[in-house]
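The instructor's notes for this session suggest beginning with a concrete chain rather than abstract definitions. Hand out the sequence below and ask the class to guess, before any prediction is shown, which regions might be ordered.
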Amino acid sequence: MGLLRRCSRTACGRPATTTLTYVYADMTAVVGPLATYAEPHAYDLCDPHSERLSAPRGWEVLRLAHDDDRGPSSDDLLALADAVREAAQPRPVEQPLQPARPVEGTRRGHLTAVRSED
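After discussion, reveal the predicted structure:
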């Protein structure tokens, strides 16, 4: 049985196609393509509820365009290929730090005054 996400509206059983999130600082409601994961502070909506959505007075509704093919774009695939190539590049091995040789100093409680080596 597949996990089909349903519309978050009460008594609506239609499949979700968009995700609604709020940007409170900008007083904006953002409706975009269905998110990859169900987020606790986002609402999945079906097409009819997404189209009829209105925001409180003073708020703006920002509607992001859907990708009709529902798959990754060529830009996404190229960015992924570049990231894999970069991760596969050999990196120089860092040499471990050599501990400094101890320098005599005056001890006062938990502090030690160290003489400089000029």
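Then share the key points. The helical segments are 47-51, 74-88. The longest strand covers residues 18-23.
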